[in-house]
Amino acid sequence: MDYVNSVLDLIGNTPLVRLDKSLDDLGDSPLVLAKIEYLNPGGSVKDRIATRMIEAAEASGELQPGGTIVEPTSGNTGVGLAMVAQQKGYKCVFVCPDKVSEDKRNVLKAYGAEVVVCPTAVAPEHPDSYYNVSDRLASQPGAWKPDQYSNPNNPRSHYETTGPEIWKQTDGRITHFVAGVGTGGTISGIGRFLKEQNPDVKVIGADPAGSVYSGGTGRPYLVEGVGEDFWPDCYDRDVADRIIEVADRDSFAYTRRLAREEALLVGGSSGMAAYAAKQLAHELAGTPEGENAVIVVLLPDSGRGYLTKVFNDEWLASYGFPVGESGPEQTVGEV
Ligand code: PMP
Q1: Active-site residue set
Q2: Where is this region: Disordered (predicted)?
């Protein structure tokens, strides 16, 4: 018989898929390979950090049997934490602002987590604010706050799993690694591991225009999960050789191309990272460095969570972005 005892055993070991048509006549080199993180059981790369952060807190005693995990998140990290917590018998409370969609809250509740919704329209110092409520809950006895922005086990999970997987899957032939930057955990952990194996590996961050990593001040951008208006502790400022800034319109257009041309239904931050990888591939094509180049780009999550945004023509058009091609839809009237 071939089975695992828990979905937690299915985290990691995601495949690399070669990008092809969406690279626009790139030719045979460089080779561009996408690491498909939506194949993790919680649907994103964040399953990896959730496992590692929880295991480390168990080992240090910060998280005790019957304890409660409190984190102000409604995104992929929440799903990962909810999944791991449920399997290990911990309670989970997520604090999120009321602008977070009901669908996202329902995913967390489906795993058995509790969701506390805070009003957006109050000042940060108000007792009901997102910040105050999560701090208050996290200071209760038995509560533990992972804090993905400063928890060293976030980058460490990538240093210990994702990085070695990529090195092995490419037989050590990877020359460039591209990833979007949010907390910085992915790029810092994988980048450090790869550079330790081969100092010539180039690490490239992809960042939404306006975010601090590409020199902005945090000006609003629409792609979710990446870009910051502050410098998180998890981001190793020495790891990236280069940051490629990507405009929202390019991120979204390329996200849609990945679905239509590569059959990869991924989120907007994946489109952003893959767009940067494509730009890099075209810069290298025809140069001696490009000859044997192997570019690996990490695609963090699935497009399922963005069907009403990136994959919705009206939503895109409302921001003035081109809708590009998507399959036709017919409404059938009277039968
Ligand atoms: N894409 C998505 C959809 C994410 O949720 C995140 C995590 N915030 C990232 C990319 C960036 O990963 P990291 O936090 O490791 O930098």
Answers
A1: 46
A2: 141-162
